[in-house]
Amino acid sequence: MMGFLMRKDVRKLLKRKDSDAGEKGRALEEVRASLFSKLREFGGGKRQQTTLWGPTVALTFNFFVSVSIILMNKLVLVTVGFNYPIFLSFLHYVCSWLIMAILNALSILSLSTPSKSTKYSSLLSLGIVMSLSTGLANVSLKYNSVGFYQMAKIAVTPAIVLAEFVLFRKKISFLKVLALTVVSVGVAVATVTDLQFHFFGACIAVAWIVPSAVNKILWSNLQQQENWTALALMWKTTPITLFFLVMLMPYLDPPGVLSFKWDFYNSTIIGASAVLGFLLQWSGALALGYALLSTSFGN
């Protein structure tokens, strides 16, 4: 009998029988850990993956969110009549901060900062230009048509290239210049039929180009050199951005935000715009992170 029980195939059978009860629990735990791991990777800044699907998904996600939030914000500012673009930006960042806090509390996404210390002046500068970039963008969208807004947005890319050349002597290849030109011309042709603008709105659009370009440069430098993840950087700079948005409200928003008709429909539309604001910021950071990663591998 002992010889039979000690046989290899019988030992395997007995071991399988004893472990059947816990296999389902372990399998469920492994699936849960895998899902959380994937979400944490998706929220990260640098990834050690060179596959094409990651950048493609990030860029596609950012494209659809960008188009959606432009249309949604135009609906909020014009159709709904919420004439407070800076306060709308403030609501966007408050919503983003709350979403990140919930995700962090549930351990779904990690907001841990890098081990390497970063100067507070760098985070302060980024928070300031983020408030200017987002706030002025919504002011421009309030006064100008979507087509003119898109035309101003096109100018941000060459402004980034010029600023990086002036500040860091960074040059890009002829093929990248050609690709940027083709994309810019394509968007310009697509929006040239809708170029209505207000003089004050046009001035705001021109003023918006500079902080928007600086925002992307500072963000990319912190991700590339300091190893910040997208969400961690958003979490750290959001309080600074909120403070400076409050400072901008008296100058660029009209009075009377508390007397606005906060009914169910208006509140739902504004809330949807705020959620899209979080998705836009996150998707843009992810797309920028993948672009930095592909650049580092290309070098």
From TrEMBL:
The keyword Repeat does not apply. Its main location: membrane. It comes from the Eukaryota. It is found in: Membrane. Keywords: Membrane, Transmembrane, Transmembrane helix. Pfam families: TPT (PF03151). Residues 59-248 form the Sugar phosphate transporter domain. GO terms for cellular component: membrane. Signal peptide: none annotated. The chain crosses the membrane at residues 52-72, 84-111, 123-141, 147-167, 174-193, 199-218, 230-249, 269-293. It is a multi-pass membrane protein. This is Organic anion transporter. The gene is LOC102583389.
